[in-house]
Amino acid sequence: AASLAVRPFFSENLVEATGSFAEMMLALSVLDLPFTAGDHVIQTEDSRLTLQAATPLLLVRKEIAETEPAGKDTQILVSQNYYRLDERYRYVGNQRRDAYISDEFLIDVAYGCQIVITNPTSSPRRLDLLLQIPQGAIPVQRGFYTRGSSLELAPYATSSITYAFYFPHALQAEHYPVQVSSEARILAFAAARTLKVLREPSKVDTLSWEHVSQNGTSQEVFQYLDKANLNRVDLTKILWRLRDRGFFDGVIARLRERHRYDRAVWSYGFFHREAPVAREYLETVDAFVRRCGRSLDSPLLTIDPIERHSYQHVEYEPLFNPRAHKFGKARLILNADLARQYQSLLSVLRYRPKLDAVDWMSVTYYLLLQDRIEEALAGFAKVDPAELPMRLQYDYMRAYLDFFTDDHALARGIAEKYARHPVERWRIRFQQILDQLDEAEGKGVTLKDPDNREAQQGALATTQASMDLAVEARRVQLQYRNIENIEVNYYDMDVESLFSAHPFVQGGSGSFAYIRPNFREHRSCPKDKNELSFDLPDKFRNANVLVEVRAAGLTRRQPYYANSLAVHLAENYGQLTVTQSKTRKPLPKVYVKVFARLPGGKIRFHKDGYTDLRGRFDYASLSGNAMNATRYSILILSTHHGAVIREVAPPTR
């Protein structure tokens, strides 16, 4: 026991602990080896070596011993081939092939050697490989001069090993081939070779782009480009040749013919002062183009914001503006999307030295979206239709702007010209112009586009029962549509106190629905007319009276005070129509202002604007974040025909 206590611990199984660095350090830590070795005494005599250890140590002996071949039944296959690192493969048609080298090697070129070992048997094999690079070569890519390697091959498996080297000098380099052994017996080996290393190639390999690009003539380069798949060709290899004008022209012509663009090749257009080539190059340098602004027209660079997708014309259909006039000191576009689009247009136009016809068309369109009619008319007057790439859009804009004049013969003539246009979208638009003109003249309305929400709203609004009540000059005047019979109720009231207590007139008069009227009568509405007029009962001729008319589920209430406008409300669709009470002619350019009552009773401004050519105005719709109104109070104001206040519920959703 005492002798075992002083004996240092060691184990011959140390060499098995090779799984990882941590495993090896753990195995070493349990051995009784000193941190600092002593001064060992080593003596050699002839072929004998004597070691006298001063401290415990590990002794590893390595030797090279001659082995015997295993015979012809080893059944292990091995091959050894060479290739250039910068040209590992070649393509024959669309198939990739190994680009092995079998004849000449060049100095200062990195080569790879591929060893492939195959086990064609049904038994696993554990093999030892001896590898070394050719004589006179220098290893690269963390390579080696000589190395042993172990390999385990599963049944019917193949494995490959590669290493790299280069030759600094021309020579005849002997290469000892790979040796495959197992249990100290040689199983297989590759053939020994002598590699001929040259300073310059004795011939050009016309199938190798690396050879042709660096050593071939210009004609040989052209012949290679004519046959090769240019998407697989590294054109940077021939940039040094492009200073020659003839070679440059030949390469550019071939690349254009094959639809292959290379920015580095095209950049030599500046060197040769070839403007078309330089122009094509600049168009692809996005970072440079961005520094040149949103739009540019110069001999070497044209920046079209539409082609470069930095700007796109956007159509807004429909767009409902909350305000028709400037509010405050500055003009604001309350629709955020339209505001961004308009600012984007202005950022493009500021780079133009002069606006062309297309620019003025865009300006006109976006001014119309802002209800800046006078400015839009002035901008459209600057459009020369002969300079436009399109005529149809110009004619549509011309017909639309004609709505803002007193005579609309021009709009009708243009619309009739395109009424049978083969493109459905434009055919419907021009037919809608004719519909609006017909409706303004008192004709019927037909639905041309069943998928258009605004067209559906307009057509359906003409079929809904509607009526408008007015009391003036001691007469009750009822404008109606699609109504046969009415009930008329009369209430005595104090107009001033009612209005003071209830700013929404109809909201205040609505309280009369819960009391008995002072007088009631029933009347019939002629089917061939749209107006019914009758005198106030004698007892109410000199009184402040609220007149209430009920029909087809509708109720209209009107205090007795003067007005001369006829207003038809299509409540389910949020539209109203203003006409002259006697002639029934639509009244355009009538100012309409709308206030909304919100949940909780708060009252806010909703929108304003003017009636269109048909006397129609959409009082409910609003682009953007619309208010959740519970009721609308509408002021209809005409310079020549007075004012009317109407209170209506929001359209049914």
Overview of the structural elements:
By secondary structure, this protein is α+β, with helices and mostly antiparallel strands. The protein contains 18 helices and 33 strands. The protein has a five-stranded mixed sheet, with no helix packed on it. A hairpin with a 2-residue loop joins strand 20 and strand 21. Helix 10 packs antiparallel against helix 11 (357-369) and helix 13 packs antiparallel against helix 14 (409-417). The longest helix is centred in the middle third of the chain and has 17 residues, at 424-440. The radius of gyration is 48 Å and the shape is elongated. The termini are far apart. The model has no long low-confidence stretch (mean pLDDT 86).
Distance between the termini: 102 Å
Structural shape: elongated
The description of the largest β-sheet is: 5 strands, mixed
Count of β-strands: 33
What's the overall average pLDDT, rounded? 86
Q: Total number of helical segments?
A: 18
**Over all CA atoms, what is the radius of gyration?**
48 Å
Beta fraction: 25-35%
Structural class: alpha+beta
Strand order of the largest sheet: 3-16-15-10-12
Q: Which percent range fits the helix content?
A: 10-25%
What are the segments in which pLDDT stays under 50 over at least 5 consecutive residues? none
